[in-house]
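Hi all, long-time lurker, first post. I run a small reading group and we've been trying to get comfortable going from sequence to structure in the token notation. Rather than ask abstract questions, I figured I'd post a concrete chain and ask someone more experienced to write out its structure so we can walk through it together at our next meeting. Sequence below, copied exactly:
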Amino acid sequence: LLDRIDIQLEVQTIKYADLTNFSQEENSIAMSMLNGDYDLAQVPADFTEMLTSKGLVTTQDLNKSITYICFNTQEHRPVSDPNLRKAIAAAIDYTQLMDVLKGEGFWTDDLCPMDEGTAYWTDAFNNADYAGAANLELAKEYLEKANYNGESIVIAAKSSDKAAEVIEAMIEAAGINCEIFFMDDAAYTPYFGDTSNPYDIICATSVKCDSIPSAMVTNLRTRFWNDDDAAELFDVIGGSMAGSEESKSAWKTMYTKWVEDAHIIPLGTAQVVDYHHPDLVINSEGSWRYYFNAYWKNPANHMG
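-- Answer (accepted) --
Happy to help. Here is the structure in token form:
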């Protein structure tokens, strides 16, 4: 039968700019979209007016992302002191910083790295005394408890980073010395991936997952929070069935430690927006919805 049918198949290659790759600079991606070099890209909200005015359209992806500040807690770094981390957290105005990073109206104040519909969601981050608006009095209280001798807190940032100078100003307002180490975008990921490098803070984004634990945990395990308590918790999480009481208990313990010791500072949840040409129909069902992290020892055992 197939010999008698003249079938013509046209395969279209979609050129996609993946901004989760840190080596790609956001402004150049936006320009490439306008030039037709890419068909689809995820570009920050501050490019919306420019791109849509040139005929590009937006589609909301199923994905969300959690933006957070992460500390290099190696013993030789000043931010290994939890009171100094809390002082920094109290000095930061989440709303102002997220508006800079994601754009007003493109984010919510849900601070949990997991989606609210999962068994792993918690409001513990929102209830931390240092969360939300900048509180310089609280920052001063934590700073007085910290073993801080005026060392300069180093922010590692890629050259296109819009948040670093905002974070620097907020931290310095609390009486904490700060400096930014800017680097080429391509060099950024390997640099902060090695915590023996001389930096204290990065601002990062991870997938916010609606089915299983977030990629943030993998990042923390391999790069940042790597003490004995963390190793034990990650082993339980990686070796237990998703949704089990053992798994949920381990996550609750981990969340509590994150808040009490300010290992990370979640800033808010952003909706992923795809920019594309109007003749391209986007169907993102399943594209990133199921994100299996590297720490899962036997992924097949967790798929129900």
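A couple of things your group might point at:
The mean pLDDT is 79.
The first helix runs from residue 26 to 35.
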